[in-house]
Amino acid sequence: MSNSYTADSLSLLLFTLRSGKQMAINLLKVSEIIPMPRLTRLPEAHPHIEGVATLRGEPLSVIDLSQAIGMAPLEDPRGGCLVVTEISRQKHGLHVQAVARIVSCATSKILPPPYGAKGRSFITGTAEVDGELIQVLDIEKVLHNISPASAEADLSDLNVEDAQLLTETRALIVDDSQVARSMSLAALGQLGVTCHAVTGARAALARLDELHGGPEEINVVVSDIEMPEMDGYAFTQALRQHPTYAGIYVLLHTSLDSTISTDRAKAVGANEILTKFSVPELTRCILNAARAIHRR
């Protein structure tokens, strides 16, 4: 296989919580940073929701990020600032102690979390910055723990032919977020799709090789875009350059607004791009994939 995929970089926003230790969030998932606003308390809200602020006339839920990832709350609940994220078409404010700076890291240098820390961890990767190991926040998991999205698929509109095509579809889900993998597996499993899941692109290439030529040979890849080691664009490019997998159907999955990435996804050879996590949209895209694969 050719390893001539394009190396890419990822911009990270570094911030601190109560301990003062720096953490990071993918800058693509940050829409703005604002001073801590006045909050309106909600009596029956999740305990990690500090309240609701108003941002340009729109309500904004404010999350105590320290508590949300199992740490002690900030010492000054009125201090610090908000990192406003826009993920899966929703905005949230993450209350942090301070924002430090923005750094750029080669995607290949952002490594998965240490083995054994994955199950309950809110970390999706680690990056070395100026000799310090910085943990990259799995913001999807933080949000899912507070307000779980439904992975229930609607099967009512499936006709017999489409249902049969789905049972003949074998998907590989590639995502560094444990929540995203679990939800994709659940939704596609309900549709009758045979699924495998891995945490990154290099593991995906190994799994494709492992299953190639067997009864569960993969015919559609559903890959996250914002991943450590090799992002979804580079992974798609690697597939398109591979002598065996050049024609495999690729869906690129992103927690960001899909309009941001569509042109680039097409340029590297992706068949379709979708925003997570919307079960109807995933269903539509996997149906498109099944029809394209089996009617070639």
UniProtKB/TrEMBL annotation:
Among SMART domains, the record links this protein to: CheW, REC
Give GO BP annotations, semicolon-separated. chemotaxis; phosphorelay signal transduction system
> What would be one Pfam family of this protein?
Response_reg
Name of this protein: Chemotaxis protein CheV
